[in-house]
Amino acid sequence: MPTLRQIKTPFGTIRITRSADGGMAYYQNGCFHSQANKNGVSVCAYIHVIYELVLQSLARDVLIIGCAGGTLATMLRRMKCKVTVVDINEAAFTIARDYFQLPKDVHCVTQDGIVYLRTAQKKYDAVVIDVFDSDNTVPPDFTTTALFQSIRQVLSPEGIMVMNFITKDDDDKRAEAVAGEALSAGMPIRLFDWPGETDRNTLILGGGPATLQIPSGREPEDVENDMKGLVCRSLSDHSNGAV
Prior knowledge:
By secondary structure, the chain is of the alpha/beta class. The chain contains 7 helices and 13 strands. The relative contact order is 0.14.
């Protein structure tokens, strides 16, 4: 896809590409971070899983740490959720609004996500963590028990936490290790994963309703095939089960 815009920021070079059908993709330092169709809807399966987790938990006030193209925020705002997005890179907000249809009434905060969580003055129904360093790994400060304790402090009593992690292959157990830190912070944990896939998204869910319907049937055709093979399992029993 041809490059539409390239911006150098203090946190790396952001490149925006546009496909022939009007879709947009967001890269930072060469790493893929976000993609949306011409309507601003994500074409990434993991985003649709998070979207359903938030909606099925009945969350109405959502905090998202990590912006990129802002597709999750856009989709949730269209469902009348109140959305706050925090990112250390202010340029991400401008790009999300200019190229990915991020609504103007999404509250955008330029701040380190850890600092925001530690100093937040309100509670949220859902907290989504989707942050990566330039090497596509989750920053170490976002993998500790202390981080998940901070998240619990800003969650409403029935609130949920979702963290996105990149898993290299079935032998990569880093997501399980981070999920163990969340478990130590007192969160009931489930993992949503695509076993057998390489360089895949693994989602760590803290809390949430016992019954979830994922896929929900509301996913666009763009992601239907990518949803296949998704499994959900509890961290405590290590048992796999199709969602």
